Amino acid sequence: MKVKSPPKARSKFRVKESETSYVSADLLTIEEAANAVGKTPANIRYYLQYNRIGKYNPEGKRIVKALNGELRVSLSEIKAFLALIKKGIEKHHHAGLHSELGFYHLAERERTKHVHRLHPYLGKFIPQLVEWFLKQYFKQGDWVLDPFMGSGTTLVVGNELKMNTVGIDVSEFNCRIAQVKTQQYDVEKVRFEILDADKRITLFSKRLLKTDDAPLFPDREFKKLEERLLSGCKSEYLKTWFAPRALLEMLYYRELINKGKYQYKDLLRVLLSRAVRSSRLIPHNDLATPKVPLPVGKEYWCQKHNRMCKPIDNCVSKIHAYSEDTVRRIEEFDKLKSDKKITILQGDSRRINLGKELSSVKLDGIFTSPPYVGQIDYHDQHIYAYELFGIKKNDKLEIGPKSMGKSLKARQDYVDGISKVFQNVLPFLKKDANIFIVANDRLKLYPEIAQRSGLKIVEEFHRAVTKRTEKGDNPYQETIFWMKKKD
Ligand SMILES: C[S@@+](CC[C@H](N)C(=O)[O-])C[C@H]1O[C@@H](n2cnc3c(N)ncnc32)[C@H](O)[C@@H]1O
């Protein structure tokens, strides 16, 4: 496979030594790397020369210049780069991949550290990406806005870095996730409440199964409780996508939250929602976009585990697993949290009145990843939560909705919608504010969006995304546009 000649314009991004240390097992000499991927050492040197891949020392530290015999390259980084070339993506980009933004070696637990995994969310960016930009272009005490907040990654990272943050999202459930991730907690109370609810649902489940150690509860009374729970469930979705036992358990837990004297009800709801998501009658390999429920109790061939698996029949095991996990995550973030202000606004970013919320504050910048054209349905991915908690949907206000596809009209509406968001929020930004927009801009819409919003593109950073979804490591390329207001 041939790599096309590099364009004349070299990347403007600043390559600098980083503090990041990578897994040394992945680091190879140029000759070893060439062997491993079926290329010549000259090919690998070429990638290095044009910043397609990074230079590392034997300890895995990113370097600008290598001492004699010390130069190493990263095998996963080269593989991601070659996979993009194969797809025909990389050759279109003049700047090349920014290897420091690939985060190839980041373990799953780092990408989903503390509250970032309180609830799954399809389409979120990794905290390390936000961290990299906020550290480079913002300082403590700055005000950073994310007008497409999603599950609140920018807010969590910004707060950790002692910055004030403002997030807007059209979806009520996304706002709840972000709120639950970022609010101030009495951690001991969190532990008490989560463990209390866990104890109660466990007893309920034992009684439901009539285990030997089940609590004494007269049959007639329990039957009535079951009937009441089921008659309170009007959702066809819930009745279809869950086994009968799982359904009863989640309905009982929901009632515990609603009727119990818990202070952190929304945290318990997010925990339940996460458990409910994992309790759907779906194959293990398709948690993100399942099409139809599996029959209760019927085994299926599982691509994730490479064996026959049975769809889950209960919810209590997931509630139990996520109970301990949630307490730990809240505790971890509590230690990192700063006292900076966090503002979460639910609404349409094209119209929301930021002035009312900010009073005289002028924002220092934006870090955001807008929805892409016709790609993800941000409401439907959490349909189980909308159904369980009866949350009002605002899907008609989503920009670039999946239902509209990628037609010419959909693209025009998208450009119009995203431009309107920037037009709406730019008056609240300082004159020299830094605006970063993470986009998979295959359709090349962002130059026009910049133009229509009164923005100029300062620089484009290209990165390989290798581990974003639950569907594997097949890389794609994404661009981080650095923009500023036009003078
Ligand atoms: C790519 S996601 C952002 C993910 C986020 N960066 C994270 O890490 O969780 C885009 C978000 O834009 C939101 N969105 C779509 N249309 C919107 C609108 N008109 N106003 C505000 N938010 C909108 C969607 O609900 C979705 O959460």
Structure description:
This protein is α/β, with parallel strands linked by helices. The chain has three domains: 78 residues, Multidrug-efflux Transporter Regulator, Chain: A, Domain 2, CATH 1.10.1660; 205 residues, Vaccinia Virus protein VP39 (Rossmann fold); 108 residues, no CATH class. The chain has 17 helices and eleven strands. The strands form three sheets. It has a seven-stranded mixed β-sheet with strand order 7-4-3-8-9-11-10, sandwiched between helices. It has a two-stranded antiparallel sheet with strand order 1-2. Strands 5-6 form a two-stranded antiparallel sheet. α12 packs across α15. The longest helix is centred in the middle third of the chain and has 23 residues. It is globular, with a radius of gyration of 25 Å. The protein starts with 26 loop residues before the first strand and ends with a strand. The N terminus is likely disordered. S-adenosylmethionine (SAM) binds next to β4.
Quick take:
With 487 residues, this protein is α/β, with parallel strands linked by helices. It has helices spanning 30-37, 41-49, 75-86, 108-111, 127-137, 153-160, 172-182, 187-209, 219-231, 236-241, 244-259, 265-278, 316-336, 354-358, 383-389, 408-425, 446-453, and strands at 27-28, 73-74, 143-146, 164-169, 300-302, 307-309, 342-346, 363-368, 429-439, 455-465, 476-485. The chain contains 17 helices and eleven strands.
